[in-house]
């Protein structure tokens, strides 16, 4: 078990959802925090909640898909805290559209945030984790990093890539006392669907309604993530639907048969 007391944790996408909940969970373990997001108002609210709880922190307005900004962000964290031990690459976005209807600018946007944001977070903070003598990268993939889903080709592409990147990096750093955790949540009650790009149609509203009623609170996901850091896990699958998906993909690795996929699409009315 790793003690997190007095460690410095960096959390992107900290204005809401899993990012905010994980920042609060890490603060409860005694971590100093560097929290980042593009949502200035949401980030300020996270900072107020953490400050009321007695956390030491710095706030940073960051577009994780911006290479120069992410490099500067790493420098800012070291200037503010002197070191870094844990990096939660959590910031994420989605687009709900078939490839036929998908705007390529939106495709580049999601790749920038979901994939390049993770790569930049690992690349620019790696020297600081090495200097600290130990560390953990937590890279948010998804249940959709385990299986393909219609109308989510861009999102799935980024989350599959995050999983592969994380597994490779974990092997590279295995002898350096630096862990890399790939996290695969299913439905978590966050703003990602509500803030998604794509048509404002009935299918999107059905997904939003399902998340509001049935999705797991982000605090439960955050608890699993923090436990994984302490226990030095390499892979975390969160929520029952994600675990079932993971099991089915292990038992039946090929893609879903065309007829079954067609039936599921008709029933779900996803496209």
Look at the structure and name the CATH superfamily: NAD(P)-binding Rossmann-like Domain
Order of helices and strands: EHEHEHEHEHEHHEHH
Number of strands: 7
- Provide the spatial order of strands within the biggest beta sheet: 3-2-1-4-5-6-7
- What is the global morphology? globular
Oligomer: single chain
Major β-sheet profile: 7 strands, parallel
CATH level 3 topology: Rossmann fold
Portion of residues in beta strands equals 5-15%
CATH class bucket: Alpha Beta
User: Share of helix among residues?
Assistant: 40-55%
Overall tally of structural domains: 1
Radius of gyration: 18 Å
**How far is it from the N-terminal to the C-terminal residue, by CA?**
46 Å
| Unreliable residue stretches | none
Tally of separate helices: 9
* Structural class label: alpha/beta
Report the CATH architecture: 3-Layer(aba) Sandwich
Description:
By secondary structure, the protein is α/β, with parallel strands linked by helices. Strands 3-2-1-4-5-6-7 form a seven-stranded parallel β-sheet, sandwiched between helices. The chain is built from nine helices and seven strands; from the N terminus they run βαβαβαβαβαβααβαα. The protein starts with 7 loop residues before the first strand and ends with a helix. The chain has a single domain, classed as NAD(P)-binding Rossmann-like Domain (Rossmann fold), CATH 3.40.50.720. The model has no long low-confidence stretch (mean pLDDT 88). This is Putative oxidoreductase SadH. It is an enzyme of class 1 (oxidoreductase).
